[in-house]
Amino acid sequence: MNAIDNRTDIPAQDVVRDEAFYRDFRQQLRHFMQGNCPQELRELVRSNQKVGRAEYARWQQILHARGWGAPGWPVEFGGTGWDLQQRYLFEEVSAELDCPPLYHHGLGHIGPVIMHFGTAEQRAYFLPRIIDGSQWWCQGYSEPGAGSDLASLKTSAVREGDHYVINGQKTWTSHAQEADIMYTLVRTSQEGRKQAGITLLLVPLDTPGIEIRPIRTIDRWHHVNEVFLNDVRVPVAHRLGEEGEGWSCAKFLLDRERLSPATVPRLARQLQQVEELIQNRLREQGAQPSLHSALERLFVAKASAMGAREMLLSAIQEEMNGTLQSSKSSALKLHCSELSQQISSLAYDLAAPEFATRLLPQAPAADGQDDLEMERQLIHTYLFYRSRTIAGGTSEVQKNVIARDLFGA
Ligand SMILES: Cc1cc2nc3c(=O)[nH]c(=O)nc-3n(C[C@H](O)[C@H](O)[C@H](O)COP(=O)(O)OP(=O)(O)OC[C@H]3O[C@@H](n4cnc5c(N)ncnc54)[C@H](O)[C@@H]3O)c2cc1C
Questions:
Q1: Does ligand 1 come within 6 angstroms of the Cβ of 151?
Q2: Are strands 163-171 and 156-160 parallel, antiparallel or unpaired?
Q3: What are φ and ψ of residue 393, in 5° steps?
Q4: Rounded distance, CA 364 to CA 385, Å?
Q5: How confident is the model at residue 50 (pLDDT cuts 50, 70, 90)?
């Protein structure tokens, strides 16, 4: 066993990081996650059911108590300081054991922006609450008329003394119904380039003047919302970066959002589940032509997942070195969202079409128990994943970013 600091499990500097070191580290992760992730949470994740704030927070608190609350953060901000390989292993073992993913809006999105652009007071106040899972965030970027063309946003913030007064509307705001704070882009100036008049504000969602309305999506769950802001007063101390610097913060954040280290291992786990499904069908039905074609699709998806893994590793390394290119995170986002649709379509085609009309998610089983829970969840996942090529920036927009970076278009 290699030398490990017992308090945080951060390897001492002089430890040789060879194959044996990472094997031990993986064992340590497995041992902890198997012993400490509650069985009911793992079952929920394994069967692709909805994970909400309560479940995310429960797991986050357990990880935090272990010193593993922020695997991607540097030690100075309360993170583990793990290297690339350790970070990837954490995500991989977590997915293999069906532990809930980390809640991305805090740890993956706004946390790094606060580290980079925040004041000492903002870092000291917000970062510990993200790591211990007590404060929950959502993203208020998109508006009706400002999605792909985000810089056209109209929600305004006018400075009055030591407050901003915000008026406008956000839309497609994931998790707003269960979040405490929304990081949001607002227009503070109409002068010059439209990007230059944008500022990033952190808006507590219990501030008077905020109304949150649910949007029901095709999968019938409540993920997204409209958020109306009517004379909402936010202290200037809740501005991240300088006034007019919001566009730089937004781009910094979107690059990290599109990187999303958990996606690739979760896709690999879903592929494993699909493979099990095919094996079961082969045992039950014999070698039907439809199963041959499913196997072919499975192999193509597996090859794609291997490519995504390599791309992810090099992107995480670039992020750690501070050299992450927008085109790299966009390529990863593009590839993974399309792959997730391929996998969920394959699972759906195998198991679900004959049940689709009667098994829409949340339609209760006639007698509470109809033995079709797996099919119900596959239909749900299939429908939900239709949004993967839209949320976080559409595939067309990712292609534009890649083209611009490569060809200077
Ligand atoms: C499930 C889900 C969750 C979301 N969560 C959030 C969230 O938490 N916070 C948030 O702020 N937003 C969120 N969004 C919004 C998401 O970021 C936007 O939907 C997305 O950016 C697209 O914007 P739009 O819907 O306005 O479509 P539009 O921008 O109107 O695009 C319509 C179509 O035109 C294409 N198009 C647009 N511009 C170009 C171009 N220049 N070149 C080529 N094609 C183009 C698009 O690809 C698309 O096919 C979420 C969306 C979904 C579906």
A1: no
A2: antiparallel
A3: 105, 130
A4: 21
A5: confident
Q: Choose one of 172, 198, 229 to mutate for the ligand 1 pocket test, by most ligand atoms within 8 angstroms of C-beta.
A: 172
The answer to whether 327 and 402 have CB atoms below 8 angstroms apart is yes
Task: Work out the number of other CB atoms within 10 angstroms of the CB of residue 29.
Answer: 23
Distance (Å) from CA 172 to ligand 1 centroid: 9
CA dist 277 and 291 (Å) reads 10
pLDDT digits (tens, 9 = 90+) for 60-90: 999 999 999 999 999 999 999 998 889 999 9
141 Cβ inside 6 Å of ligand 1: yes
Percent of the chain with pLDDT over 70: 90
Q: What is the CATH number of the domain that holds 284?
A: 1.20.140.10
d(CA 117, CA 357): 49
- The pair of structure tokens assigned to 5 is 């600091």
Please identify which of the residues 143, 257, 319, 375 carries the catalytic annotation.
257
Task: Return d(Cα 406, Cα 330) in angstroms, integer.
Answer: 12
Ligand 1 atom closest to Cα of residue 224? 3
Q: Is the domain of 402 the same as that of 264?
A: yes
One domain, residues 171 and 302 = no
Q: Are residues 161 and 193 in the same domain?
A: yes
Whole-number Å distance between alpha carbons of 164 and 237: 10
| 257 in active site | yes
Mutate which of 138, 229, 390, 400 for ligand 1? The one with the most ligand atoms within 8 Å of its CB, which is 390
Rg of the Cα trace of the chain? 22
Question: Which CA distances in Å does 285 have to 104, 150, 277, 345, 404?
Answer: 41, 51, 12, 20, 50
The response to whether residue 60 sits with its C-beta less than 6 Å from ligand 1 reads no
Number of domain units in the chain = 3
The pLDDT of residue 161: 97
